[in-house]
Amino acid sequence: MTSTIALLFGGRSGEHGISCVTAGGILGAIDRERYDVVAIGITRQGRWLHVSDDPADWQLRGATPPEVPADGDEVLLPAVTKTPGAPVPLRVVRDGRVEPLAEVDAVLPLLHGPYGEDGTVQGALDLLDIPYVGSGVLASATCMDKTATKAALDAAGIASAPSISVHEDEWAQRAEEVTGSVRERLAAPWFVKPARAGSSLGVSKVTDPAELEHAVKTAFAEDPLILIEQGVVGREVECGVLQGRGGDDPRTTEPGEVIVGDDLDFYDYESKYFGKGTVSIQVPAALPDGAAERVREVAGRAFTALRLEGLGRVDVFVTETGEVVVNEVNTMPGFTPSSMFPVLWENMGMDYTSLISDLLEQARTRRIGLR
Cα–Cα distance between 204 and 156 in angstroms, integer? Predict the structure, then answer.
């Protein structure tokens, strides 16, 4: 007997296009003998539309990512919560008429960034008592906000880079004072980041204090809350994590390494998705003895401390002394067939289709409501 899964993608964040590419990968690999699929695209304006489930419609075209069209058949969510254990009935407005769309058993929210990966959509799905893949409201919101992530990691005794958070209003009132504090407390180079954006959107590397103001304004264009972080000298390593089965500890992958060429300052948005510069991915990473085990141990601890569910990707730096410093934790990492997360699990013997099924079965069988 098949289950009906709603794929939710697009969204209002700057990562809209990457979310659509992720959906194309999932649509091309999901086991159609086990799952009937309903594709729901969220427009940049926030409308939920019934869209094509053809993977070919959601592919990267050169440097242009796909986009959910602004108009189409609008999906209507139920006005009341469902009977526990029963599918959720979705309806659609088609040619001016309200028609049944599907009875959905679970949702796979393939959303990156604000208004999707940050707990907002997770809260909406919780209100409907519908199972979904990935972390709940608290963990999603915590990991979306890099300042909150650092506070939670610090409380758990897990190292992250020293940083200062700054709100746009604070910067407008006392930019010189903040700049002085940065120079006094943080060793250069600095990385200036939006606190609640992903895919390196709005991120700048600053080596000259004279460049700080421009970098700050670039980050503020994405988020009124930003982070100025001390650069860490180390190898950039990523570890995939899946929730343990039946209450077991989280499952982790062998780490993979992102090796950035001399023609790039760092692994930025264009190099991640559009072929800018020289980047190579090594899976598994060729780390010194014991380092891979430490990375996996830190990744598992971070997953547990931040109360993640389903999946996560923990990005760290491994320093020359062997210290593992967490860079960020992603509750919905990039999930195209060539993205680091599925590649890491393929190296562990779990292919892309099996990984999708693993996540969907986790979602379908977990507790509804408070957990």
Answer: 28
